[in-house]
């Protein structure tokens, strides 16, 4: 009798796992399909990337250097293109390529933000920069270092204003180039990330390969060239969060997610966090659009669930709650920002010689339509 009961328990958990996996895959794909082609979102992503390009130009970097700053030579990472094509995607890449470049700006080039804090007079001349954000980061650095005087802080920052550096962030990452983003400053009681997830066994990864026919938007010729895909290729070499990680079913967050019809793939989304960090640097920042951008970047593969992306946006003021189903909340954001009419954003290709009007402070307000996005 005991053995039979034990077998029934195993069967229950196995069927529950299959159900959750099916629900997760179909749900994340469904959410992504609603988001990725929203014109207002695509325009916003394009404008943020152009802001980054304009900033790097204003700081004196050539196109060749900028291309290297926004490039990552890894075919297992979605949205990557050849270094020679970076400027092309700034001018007109698909949303996956452009979001990847925005992410790379934060992952590889934290020293640019330190440079702006260290050179206050220069930063103040850049009217498209969110000066309040620079002050927030500077105050955070003072808190971390225990230093109150600007002169002493600047002395410390001078050593990392043109090379490896650290900036405030809610995630921790240690890429090969040594840059470290600091660090779990928010108070979510998730415990160590190692308690929430573990590496997926290699033999199980084949079940999570990404087929070319399922990728939206379709792969660009730039992405195909970078990955060296043949005309007969059926899959891409991307290593996704779902492929790399397995969630610990005993973690308390799992029961919370299940209760409210949410899913976990690899834990709170560092990618969403870093995209929001990049967008926050500019005065056009919009929290809801930045969150949708993070969801769009993370759910196609998927690397994360929409639930995990929303969790990562909460420390920045997003009014999401863990007891709300992610798709219901995302649908509300979509209904607010999806507009079949012509977008209110203009999309010129910015260079340092063109002045772009922008509003300082925490976020840019739409001139033609009042928004309550700035939470």
From TrEMBL:
Q: Where is this region: Disordered?
A: 356-375
Q: Is Membrane included in the keywords of this UniProt record?
A: yes
What UniProt keywords are attached to this protein's entry? Answer: Membrane, Transmembrane, Transmembrane helix
Q: Cite the record's Basic residues compositional bias ranges.
A: 362-375
Q: Which residues cross the membrane?
A: 7-24
Q: What is this protein called?
A: Uncharacterized protein
Q: What is the lineage of its organism?
A: unclassified sequences, metagenomes, organismal metagenomes
């Amino acid at each position: 009798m005991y053995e039979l009961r034990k077998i029934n328990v195993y069967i229950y958990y196995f069927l529950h796992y299959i159900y959750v996996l099916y629900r997760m895959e179909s749900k994340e794909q469904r959410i992504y399909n609603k988001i990725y082609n929203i014109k207002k979102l695509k325009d916003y992503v394009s404008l943020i990337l152009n802001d980054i390009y304009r900033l790097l130009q204003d700081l004196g970097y050539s196109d060749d250097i900028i291309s290297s700053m926004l490039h990552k030579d890894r075919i297992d990472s979605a949205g990557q293109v050849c270094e020679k094509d970076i400027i092309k995607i700034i001018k007109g890449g698909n949303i996956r390529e452009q979001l990847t470049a925005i992410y790379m700006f934060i992952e590889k080039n934290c020293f640019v933000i330190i440079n702006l804090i260290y050179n206050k007079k220069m930063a103040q001349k850049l009217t498209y920069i969110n000066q309040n954000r620079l002050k927030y980061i500077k105050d955070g650095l003072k808190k971390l270092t225990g230093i109150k005087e600007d002169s002493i802080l600047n002395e410390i920052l001078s050593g990392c204003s043109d090379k490896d550096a650290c900036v405030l962030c809610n995630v921790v990452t240690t890429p090969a180039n040594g840059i470290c983003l600091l660090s779990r400053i928010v108070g979510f009681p998730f415990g160590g990330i190692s308690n929430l997830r573990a590496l997926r066994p290699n033999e199980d990864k084949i079940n999570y390969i990404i087929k070319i026919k399922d990728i939206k938007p379709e792969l660009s010729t730039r992405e195909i060239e970078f990955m060296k895909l043949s005309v007969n290729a059926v899959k891409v070499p991307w290593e996704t969060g779902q492929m790399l990680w397995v969630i610990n079913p005993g973690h308390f967050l799992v029961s919370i997610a299940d209760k409210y019809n949410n899913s976990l793939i690899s834990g709170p989304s560092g990618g969403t966090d870093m995209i929001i960090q990049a967008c926050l640097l500019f005065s056009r920042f919009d929290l809801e659009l930045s969150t949708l951008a993070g969801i769009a970047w993370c759910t196609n593969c998927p690397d994360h669930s929409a639930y995990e992306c929303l969790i990562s946006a909460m420390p920045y003021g997003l009014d999401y709650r863990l007891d709300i189903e992610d798709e219901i909340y995302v649908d509300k954001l979509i209904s607010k920002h999806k507009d079949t009419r012509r977008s209110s954003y203009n999309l010129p290709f910015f260079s340092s010689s063109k002045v772009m009007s922008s509003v300082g402070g925490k976020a840019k307000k739409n001139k033609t339509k009042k928004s309550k996005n700035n939470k």
